[in-house]
Write a structure and sequence with these properties.
- The chain is α+β, with helices and mostly antiparallel strands.
- It folds into 2 domains: 3-58, Arc Repressor Mutant, subunit A, CATH 1.10.10; 69-165, Histidine-containing Protein, Chain: A (2-Layer Sandwich), CATH 3.30.1340.20.
- The chain has 6 helices and 6 strands, in the order αααβββαββαβα.
- The strands form 2 sheets. A 4-stranded antiparallel β-sheet has the order 3-6-4-5. The protein has a two-stranded antiparallel ribbon with strand order 1-2.
- The chain is globular, with a radius of gyration of 17 Å.
- The N and C termini lie far apart (46 Å).
């Protein structure tokens, strides 16, 4: 691993949260495209660098402990995204990612890694500020969220909250 990628890894290890590509490019004195290429090389080398809506994070090994996950199928208009995401967070689950089934490309995934209302608010602000289209727009609002939870009661609360909102697709 070259010296720049070692420094990139060190920044991610020391970070208390996601680090944007722009921040990494500033710290490393390179373009954003160089950071993207370095992250791709780190991933190819086995490093668990994940791109989230808030920036890059380094995922730590779980030492064999697996957090329970579930997939929730939902459908709603883009305008209801905040209601959906806040309902999930308020139920106590962590939103890992979103998946849509594209007719040409198959499953398309987006990492979300949201744990707090602040994470959701930041995501929604970025969508609005940068006028970014959501993946669910490709599928008429139908999408899946993979969520993590510590207790089954959190998952039950999440399902019930989505059901009350009329977003949950019962499987």
């Amino acid at each position: 691993m070259n010296a720049r990628r070692k420094r990139l890894m060190q920044y991610l290890l020391e970070a208390e949260g996601p680090v944007t590509g722009s921040e990494l490019s500033r710290r490393l004195g390179v373009s954003r495209q160089v950071v993207v290429a370095d992250v791709a090389l780190l991933r190819a080398g086995g490093e668990q660098v994940v791109a989230t809506p808030s920036g890059y994070i380094l995922v730590e090994a779980t030492n064999g402990h697996r957090t329970p996950t579930a997939q929730l199928a939902v459908c709603h208009d883009p305008a209801d995204t905040g209601r959906e995401l806040f309902a999930l967070i308020d139920a106590g689950v962590r939103i890992v990612d979103v998946t849509v089934e594209h007719p040409l490309y198959g499953d398309l995934h987006g990492n979300l890694l949201m744990e707090t209302r602040e994470d959701v608010a930041s995501f929604l602000a970025r969508v609005e500020r940068d006028e970014i289209s959501l993946l669910s727009k490709l599928t008429g609002g139908i999408h899946l969220h993979r969520v993590e939870f510590d207790r089954m009661s959190q998952l039950r609360r999440a399902r019930e909250a989505l059901r009350r909102l009329g977003f949950l697709i019962e499987t």
